Fold this sequence. Notes:
D-Maltodextrin-Binding Protein, domain 2, three-stranded antiparallel sheet, 13 helices, 12 strands, 18% strand
Amino acid sequence: MNRRQFIQFAGAAAFGSQFPFAWADTPSPITIYGPGALPSLLLGVARHRQQQGLSAMQQTFNVETWRTPDVLRAGLANGSIQASIVPSYVAVNLSNRGLDVKLVNIMTWGLVDIIGSADSISSLKDLEGRSIAVPLRNDMPDLVLQALCKLQGVDFKKIAINYTATPAEALTYWLNDRAEFALLNEPLTSVAMMKGKSKSAARVLNLREIWRNLHDGKSQGLPQAGLLVTHAFYEQNQEFLRHLQTELQSSLQWTLTNSAEASKIGNKLLDIPSPAIKAAIPHANLTVAAAAEIREDLMLFFNTLYNLNPQILGNSMPKENFILKL
Length: 326
C-alpha cells in the first residue's frame, strides 16, 4: 500500500486533519481513529454523549484523528491503530494484501459533488471538452468519477482533468477560474458554496444520485467510508463494538436534529469551522449501516471498482470473512 492510496483520507476535508484530537478523560485502552472528514464527526458525538451521561455504553473510549496518511499507514502496520474509519476500498485493499482486518459498517452513502456555476451542466457527458479540478489522482473521489464515467459511456479522456495535491487546492483552482468545475467532498463543498457566491456556486452534479439512478434506485448509494478493525481488536472487544454500533446510530440521529451543537463538537475534533460542518451535515449522507446488512450494496460498489482496475482492491474481490457480522 503506497502513500498515494492513503492520501485521500486526510485530504477529504477542506482543512485536512493536521492536528490530533483526543477527548480528555480517564485513560482508556480503546482508541478509535478517523480522518479529518465528516464521518468522524459521529465518533466525536458518540464520545460527547457518553461524557454527558446520554449513552448506555459502559466502556469509555478515546477518539483521535491521525496527523498524516503516513501516521495511519504506520499505525495499521505496527498495530498501534486497530480501529479507524477508512475509505471502503482501502479496507478491501489492506485485507487482500494480507492484513487481517474486517469492515464493521459504512458511515456515509457518498460525500461527493461536482461544483460549478448553477445550470452549467446537467450530466457527466456534459463534462466532455470542459475542465474540472480533481484532487488526489487515483483515489476517492477520483475513482468514483472514473467509474461513473465508464458506466455512462462518457469518454474520460475528453475531460480536461486538473489534478491537485489536496482538495483545498482543487477548490482554489475553481475559485480562481483555473477550472470550470471542481470535484469535492463535504464539508469542502459547503465551503465552496460560501466562498463562491459571486460565481453562482451550485452542486451541479451529485455522484451519489448518479450512482443510484444508474441502478434504478436499488442501491442506497456509494458506500464510501466505514469503520475498519483488526481481527485481534474484534476478538478482544466484541461487546464494545456491538454497543458502539448502537451508540453511533443514536449519535447519527442526534447529529441530524442538533446540527448546530454537533458542528461545535466537530470543530474541536476535525479542525474545521463550525458553520461549514453545520452546512455540510444535510449533504453528507451520513449513516451507520452494519456492513453485514448491506452486503449487496458493498459488492456492487467493489465490483465496479474492480472492473475499473483490479489493483484498486489489491487484485481481488473481498474475502468472504472480510465483512464483519457483529
